[in-house]
Amino acid sequence: METIMSEKKIELNRRRVLGGMATLGVAAAAAGAGTYAAFTDSESSENNQVSAGTLDLTFGGSDGPVEAVSISNAVPGDSDTGTLTLSNDGSVNGTLDIGVAGVTSSGGANPDPEDQTASEDTGAALEEAVDLTITLQPGSGSTTVYDGTVANLSTGSLQSGIPLDSSTSKDIEIQYTVNPKSGQADNDIQGDTLTVNFDFTLTQA
Asked: Model's pTM, two decimal places?
């Protein structure tokens, strides 16, 4: 009898143990249920760039200072006209400013020194004798930027805010005329020299 009871106890104990193991196994399975791997998908954004535009003011495609008008051995009544083509070869629209960088003159040797005046000593006589006309887009729809003597020309801006979009051009016509005078006054300009420098600036619109 004791042997049978002992076997039953052992069997019962095994069942409890197995039952306990089964319980642990279920708990473990339940605990693992929250850690399975989920589906994922991703895309990427690459080569994000910012490219700066350009402003490139040229004289008809060429960089550097250019000479619009050159008069040699000028005498009263002489005139000369030059045209500059200003181009915006950049990718950004701009506005053009036209200005005077400076005026330089010097007096020459008058063959009749007894007629020499104080203004001739400095070259100012030639500044007073030369008329300057600057025209934007000469022809139909033209705009006069300046019309007067060089003596009355001031350094600084002549006209600003002129639209010059990308890949477009505008012509600037510059005309010099040596005004004839009556009598002895013409001799005041003999041997004088005169130089006028212009600045053209393109600014982002």
From this structure: 0.72
